[in-house]
Amino acid sequence: MEISKMVALYVRVSTLEQANEGYSIEEQEVKLKAYCTAMGYSVYKVYRDPGFSGASLERPGIQSLIDDVLTGVIDTVIVWKLDRLSRSQKDTMILLENIFVKNHTNFVSLSESFDTSTPFGRAIVGILAAFAQLERENIKERTALGRMARVKKGYPHSTRCPLGYKFKTGSNELLVDEFSSIQVKEMFQLIINGESISGISRIMDQKYGSEKFNFFRPTSVRRVLKNPVYYGKVKLGKQLFDGLHEPLISESEFILTQSIIKNRADLIKRDYSYKNGQYSSSGLLTNIIFCGDCGARMYPKKISNKTTKYVCYSVSKASKEMIRSDHCSNRLHPYKDKELERIILNEIEKLSLDKSLFDTMINNFKSRLLDSPVKTHQDRISVIQNERKNLLDLCQTGAISIQDIADRLNSLKKEQEHLENIISSLINKEEPVIDTDFAWNLLESFKNISKTDSKEDMHKIVHNLIDRIVVLNEDITIYWSFC
Fold first, then answer.
1. Most buried residue among 292, 303, 387, 456 by CB atoms closer than 10 A?
2. Is the torsion defined by CA of 397, 401, 402, 407 positive or negative?
3. Which residues are tagged catalytic?
């Protein structure tokens, strides 16, 4: 039996549009059905997309409509207004030219009083689609302005809650978290009392662990210590505004902390000193070189009158506090201190002379980020959010009760929170210590400094470019600060 062709009705509304402008799915449907009755049309099916933005075609209702148009069962598609179909000019023209017209399906927009069965109607569609695209751009601009307005009022821009606070239910207003706020205050007190950032990282990790925050990473601690939110500010770009939240430290404590961090960066970062006008050093790589077996630090130890080597503290037993293992296997120490330092300097020189090699390292780093689990988790969160929105829309239309979906909503919420925690942890691990422009400037400087033989400047460059060096017998691995 041949299926008769009929009219399809398409209705859509985003959550924001329904809240701001008041036209619901039901209102659109009533108007379209009344129009069909007046025109004597038979309605084949109503395609609905409640709570979906018109910015893309990734909507179940529009996809189902497209499938039925391609099978030839629909004669005409009717919408209440053109932007119900799509707010993207490109998507609108794709639907009209490549889907509807090619499959002999007319398109009617009720509010604009035209249809594509006439050449004039098709021309008007193109014009109106351009205005729909313009409105979308205006929405983006209004969103940016709204974001700035909220920050100026004292609300944080970030959706990630900073350590020491929690979000007020139903908003991103910051409330002091009783437990983690103590940790934040403790970190600021430690650095003011003279503790290094790496020392703070070790103390906090030993005391609290790193399950809820990456205390074991000095870069995570540094971000906390440099965050103006803790003295009552909110930030958007480079601008600071007074926040509504309660500060955890005073402004003077924050300024003192920034001064300490800056002064340490400006000074020689490791144990260098002048003696009798001569520059002496405890080792160019001191405090950035680690054992590849037990993880302890390595330091330059005098083996004989003429020989000094970088040795693992766990092997030398020189300092009980620095020992990490009683069974460390990193005992060969095949390199003299100057040999090992020359190997590292050669690697830096190689980079400074080859911009393409540097760019390749940066691109490889970015590729690793794209291939990381972060994107997979973010995609899953998007699916979860869509499912939650769809369930709530069904509940609003009366198709199901809130009791029927309560358990599923709670399960989806927990899964999303778990994924967000994982993403936060991965992002903290993947973030470089310094940006690429600063790194290349250092490499450019290296070529000049290597000619002057300035040990102080050389030390600064090495310790800025390199996050850590791991040595296990003959094997050497450099972990750069920029990738």
1. 292
2. negative
3. 14
